[in-house]
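Project standup — Tuesday

K.O.: blocked on the structure for the chain from last sprint. Re-posting the sequence here as requested.
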Amino acid sequence: MTDPGPVAGPVPEPPDAARHLFGDHLPAAVAYAGALAGDGVRHGHLGPREVPRLWSRHLVNCALLTDLVPEGAHVLDVGSGAGLPGVPMAVRRPDLRVTLLEPMLRRSAFLVETVERIGLADRVRVVRGRADDPTVVAELAGQEWVVARAVAPMDRLVTWCVPLLAPRGRLLALKGRSAADEVREHRNEIVRIGGGSATVTELGTTTSEPTWVVSVQRRRPPSRGRKRR
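H.V.: unblocked you, prediction finished:
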């Protein structure tokens, strides 16, 4: 008999925080939650134990990240995985254009199907590749906004993400409660790779798990003025 793989429980009802955040776009958020709890679990993109807290730990927290992004922005989600945080951001904010960058074939296929299923294909695209691949860098460099969640420690993350930013573009990295410690530990690497000072912002609601966002802006390159003799 073929092993059916992990089996998810029923998709929980969206809490009030989700209803408030997504508003008229809640049906798309519910459809995405269903995709995560269904194919997402079956294909190993999400652990079955995460299903009961899909809203509080995943969709709501990721959607809150849009509070830090201006209207009409283009956002690159590096290491998107199952679409977090890029898909909830796009669902909440129809004005955003989002690129989901994911190296794994199965996850990329899941993202393409899910984006089409929930009606986001006109403004969300999926790119299969690695952030440190020169071909990807050549295609995607010059981003104003790059986001990442659960991808890597800050020293590696900035090495992958800062080169994709335009001068004064910004990386928003979703982290845990030790975010400030991680920034202090890797401050030298952040600066070495071209990032400015990193700030930490706490996001969350009374019905969601708190999350911390590390914000790093890419420094402008020094102006090439005439050298003094």
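K.O.: great, moving the ticket to review. Residues 203 and 211 are 5 Å apart (CA to CA). Residues 1-5 have pLDDT under 50 and may be disordered.
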